[in-house]
Amino acid sequence: xxxxxxxxxxxxxxxxxxxxxxxxxxxxxxxxxxxxxxxxxxxxxxxxxxxxxxxxxxxxxxxxxxxxxxxxxxxxxxxxxxxxxxxxxxxxxxxxxxxxxxxxxxxxxxxxxxxxxxxxxxxxxxxxxxxxxxxxx
Length: 137
Description:
single chain, globular
């Protein structure tokens, strides 16, 4: 399925690049990591103490890009929507040793999870085949 294609690409290529509009109005990009798919939505997490949190609160339209070792790539674009679910936060913390080492548990007040609303995904490569485009919401 389309969601399986996208989540597999994100999981197989775990360091993605997350692009935002900075508080100064200029583009900002940093490494990020996809956390999980839930209810047809792609989830990520961050700390509400970070600059990126302020950026996505102020300008929620973002893009995520990642490439594979064979130079296929995936681009996601959408609008950040924060989500408060202790169950999903727990699932994310338990599935990621890195996240667990930072936030320890789902009740950490700094730990924020979000998904991309009105998300479009494009998977492309240098094969000459047309890019595959998906709308995920």
